[in-house]
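Narrative of accomplishments. A recurring question from our advisory board has been how the design workflow behaves on a single, concrete structure rather than in aggregate. To address it, we present the structure tokens for one chain from the evaluation set, followed by the sequence designed for it. No filtering or post-editing was applied between the two.
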């Protein structure tokens, strides 16, 4: 059953194709999501009409030749882009990624049979209802990801489908059926042919899914295939009172303990990857991992660079990895200064990282460390609630005020603001406009009145 209301901008496309004499169906993810009771984010349509016939049918609308070679055009209906693709069968996949050519066909069954998983091989039209030729609706009910046809064939066609299977399983909380599971492990080498950008995109989807912990556990070989630097963690034990798992198991559990935010979960994935290189064992047989945050940061940087991470994600993840083990006493004056230097958003994320890390440790570690972490959180909440100056933008003066006092424009203004912030955070002066201006005059040697 298609459980959600089809938007008018989609209905108008289906109606116009029908009026022109062409059957048309909603296909793929929008049908899957609706069957599951979720509102689809976008809608794809399949039809026997050729791309040229589709363009002619919508010649009064904005039409984009998205992938004309593969039969896809995008029609902008009432401001919404909708992809319309001609029924097709695929030629050979010589590069394990895309067919060398496609052949346009007239029947829906042939088109659905080339799709990756049964839950995505569903179609719907207002006239025909749900068209399910491969058991997709039953697999949705059972919570199963299963390839259409022979799994090895599907993965040899497109190696990215290996990660797509894991992403769907993670996001939907589904399990992978036995034959598809076996093929994933057997065909993992095909991932060597996939672009770094696509791997990174799918990895983000896997990590932010509700079943990320289970997927990382069951498919560690796939993770190590795309990130071989992580594999030593699976062989590194942690014989000390603060841990009860090997490094990889601790990592996987910490990912599952973090909120499903891409940056947070990437940080948890990498936060201890430097431990194997840092491990030492003392005379009592206790393991230590001194300096591992810095080493983890270096390894994470290599991986994120290779996977073509965007700079913002990389910067945020590396900060969290490199600082995840930083220790502060709630009574330490450096804490407030660190919060100010870090910024409210980053420090809040760092606290989340510390919580996720702690949840994946031993009971002893949680008992010892949790009260102190909670006190630090309390100080942070109090600082925010009381309007305590945390960042330069919170100061009662700004750069223009300093320039009027004679501070040279440019770098000097930034340095002066940073110095004022340090003094406010340290409690040396109040965040009061007149006090800050007076201190600026003193520090700069300028006594020009405003």
């Amino acid at each position: 059953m298609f459980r959600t209301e089809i938007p008018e901008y989609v209905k108008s496309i289906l109606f116009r194709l029908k009026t022109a004499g062409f059957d048309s169906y909603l296909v793929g993810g929008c049908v899957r999501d609706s069957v599951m009771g979720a509102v689809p984010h976008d809608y794809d349509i399949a039809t026997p009409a050729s791309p040229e016939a589709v363009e002619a049918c919508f010649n009064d609308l904005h039409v984009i030749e998205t992938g004309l070679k593969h039969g896809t055009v995008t029609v902008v209906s009432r401001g919404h882009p909708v992809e319309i693709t001609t029924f097709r069968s695929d030629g050979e996949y010589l590069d394990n990624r895309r067919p060398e050519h496609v052949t346009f066909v007239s029947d829906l069954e042939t088109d659905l049979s080339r799709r990756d998983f049964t839950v995505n091989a569903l179609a719907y039209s207002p006239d025909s209802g749900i068209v399910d030729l491969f058991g997709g609706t039953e697999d949705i009910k059972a919570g199963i990801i299963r390839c259409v046809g022979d799994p090895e064939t599907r993965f040899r066609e497109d190696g990215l489908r290996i990660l797509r299977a894991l992403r769907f399983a993670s996001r939907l909380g589904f399990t992978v059926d036995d034959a598809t599971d076996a093929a994933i492990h057997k065909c993992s080498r095909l991932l060597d042919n996939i672009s770094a950008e696509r791997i990174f995109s799918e990895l983000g989807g896997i990590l932010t899914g509700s079943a990320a912990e289970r997927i990382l556990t069951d498919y560690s070989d796939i993770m190590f295939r795309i990130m071989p630097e992580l594999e030593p963690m699976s062989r590194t034990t942690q014989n000390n009172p603060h841990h009860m798992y090997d490094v990889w198991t601790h990592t996987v559990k910490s990912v599952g303990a973090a909120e499903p935010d891409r940056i947070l979960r990437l940080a948890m994935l990498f936060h201890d990857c430097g431990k194997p290189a840092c491990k030492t064992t003392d005379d009592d047989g206790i393991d230590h991992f001194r300096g591992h945050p810095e080493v983890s940061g270096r390894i994470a940087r290599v991986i994120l660079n290779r996977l073509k991470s965007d700079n913002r994600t990389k910067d945020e993840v590396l900060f969290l990895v490199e600082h995840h083990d930083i220790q502060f006493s709630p009574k330490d004056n450096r804490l407030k200064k660190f919060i100010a230097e870090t910024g409210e958003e980053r420090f809040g994320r760092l606290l989340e990282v510390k919580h996720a890390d702690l949840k994946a440790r031993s009971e002893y570690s949680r008992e010892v460390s949790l009260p102190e972490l909670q006190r630090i959180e309390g100080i942070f909440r109090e600082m925010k609630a009381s309007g305590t100056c945390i960042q330069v933008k919170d100061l009662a003066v700004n750069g223009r005020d300093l320039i009027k006092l004679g501070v040279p424009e440019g770098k000097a203004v930034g340095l002066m603001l940073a110095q004022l912030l340090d003094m406010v955070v340290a409690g040396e002066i109040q965040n009061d406009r007149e006090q800050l201006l007076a201190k600026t005059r003193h520090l700069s040697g300028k006594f020009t009145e405003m």
